[in-house]
Amino acid sequence: MTSTSRYHLRYQLLPGRDPRELGEFCVAHGIEEVVLIYGSEELHTGHLVGADEDFWFEHVAHAHKVLTEHGVSLSLNPWVTAGHADRGRVQDVGFAPLVSPQGEVATAAASFACPVWRDWLASHYGRFAGLGFRVLWIEDDFRFHNHAPLTWGGGFEPGMLDRFAELAGERPSREQLVEAITGPGVHPWREILRRTWRTTQLEALDAVRDAVAGRAQLGLMSSGLGSASLEGRDWKALFTRCDVHRPHFAPYSDQPGAFLSYSVAMLELQRPLRPDTVEVAPEIENWTHTEWSKSDTQTWSEMVTAQLSGADALLLDLFPFVTGGPARYPRIGRMLDASRAALDATVTEDLTTIGVGVPWWPDTAASIPGDGTLRGLEADPVRTARFLLSYGIPIQAGRAPVTALFGSTAWGVPDDELPRLLSGGLLLDGVAARILEERGCGEFLGVEVGGIVERDTPQPEPYSMEHILDSDALLSVNVQPALARLTAVPEAQVWTRILTPRRDHWGDGRVAYTNSLGGRVVTMAACAPETLGRCDDGQRLAQRMVRFLGAELPLVTGGPHLVPHYGEADGVRRLAIANGSADPARPVVVTDGDPTALLLEPLREPVSVPVRRAGPHLHVEADVPHRGYVILRWP
């Protein structure tokens, strides 16, 4: 990490557009590197071969020459590997097409098992590497899922089934294979298919790496963790082949500020996937690249969020692909200039994130019992992180003294790690509690799980409300997709009860327990806690849970959706608090120490602001605006 923020601009080449204008923009606004894109989106005619490839090679070579003369570092982003989406395009260049689990056949996207496609991919990257780029990016279509209009994605082509058969020693039909891997239990074919996909993907990447032959680094774009687990993605192997990572973390268009909890979670949970030696450049995405899609305020807040996460550079998607050069959009330069001071103020060397642990295991999808769908095999730890962050509770990726485990992620916990989790502080939702009970850990939970009841299950007395016993407050569980019917053991503390519309007892709601291992467990009946209606009572209850579990963390109140990011570097603690509400807020933090406070308002210079201590509470004595940040630092 450098001591100043680094702008890397992702920019679509247009035939006839003078690249000198881009070079002058970069010099004027401190753009360190340009990532050139070509033949993308509206200009995408399919995989480039023959005269089409020659056409773009000439344009890329010319832009490289001009921008190099302006002193700009250059990387290259070929638009497709397998192909993002057909979008009505039909291409016949000899590639075997992707085939979905339902047997749908792509018209443009190519199969990873196709040797013709693999040879083309290596040749294409090898040719453009000769121009001298710092990084060649592997697009995020380098995956099996999410190739529209295919249902779920591809990976079920005849060539891929042949490779599966070689490993399995038998040749099921596509229908038989899909039924087996998604059916009840865990069929051994699922892991064989994951291995088939994994090795096929790595073979394609090896072909690209060999073709580039040390002339450029390789950068990897990635997306959701749950889908990658289902695909059998081997992150360690990928990052022995790739040197730069673009983790997806932000939406393409304007979202409420509360969505920052997703962005903070995505950046943190992808951190353990890569070695420290891998460069990180999160992409500040925007589609269709105008203020009509994403405001400067949101772009600013996402840049700050990425910088706080420890990014080495910011990969900026800002300019429309086909409607004019930089001179037509002077506000973009003004936005970047106005953002620089706040970004420089948030650069932190080697920050160690501290919070409630949100663990995730890349092999989780191999252990989840099937429900008849591929999506049912995807476990997403971001759900857990968003529940905590929006209630002002910091998180960290992986295990911690206090850990939270929601949903089918609990199937991914290795057997030898269960005692350690159960002997610390452990927060569970109803699904995770049921899974741990099935795995033989019920005696350590303090509850019996009498089944998972779906919202739409007909019942004479359906669940409706959650009664907080010590305050007599009521929370709604009326639209929870499912609840676990919990019964606390006599030694446990029952904090809430689930009631019917007539206020009759339906089951226990939140149960706290100290087990025989010395661990503390809190179990919630809710099976999707991140979708519970939020309120001050819900926040108090959430923070009470992590305190009971032993979390010694700064907890934030003072307004809705105050999203924290906490860590330590060089003996200095840093707590960054983003305001995800549209209303200004004055955060209140329960912590020790005597911090200084720096207010970051969108597109303005940072300013120091006072804090006031009242017992254990620190009050920030300034309004933090929508998507603004306040940074607290103390020894």
Can you put this structure into words, describing what you see?
The chain is of the alpha/beta class and 635 residues long. The protein folds into 3 domains: 1-79 and 243-348, TIM Barrel; 356-551, Rossmann fold (3-Layer(aba) Sandwich); 557-634, Golgi alpha-mannosidase II (Immunoglobulin-like, Sandwich), CATH 2.60.40.1180. Helix content is 28%, strand content 24%. The strands form 8 sheets. It has a 7-stranded mixed β-sheet with strand order 15-16-23-22-21-18-19. Strands 12-25-26-32-28-29 form a 6-stranded antiparallel β-sheet, with helices on one face. A hairpin with a 5-residue loop joins strand 21 and strand 22. The longest helix is centred in the first third of the chain and has 25 residues, at 188-212. The protein is globular and about 75 Å long. The chain starts with 6 loop residues before the first strand and ends with a strand. The relative contact order is 0.09. The model has no long low-confidence stretch (mean pLDDT 96).
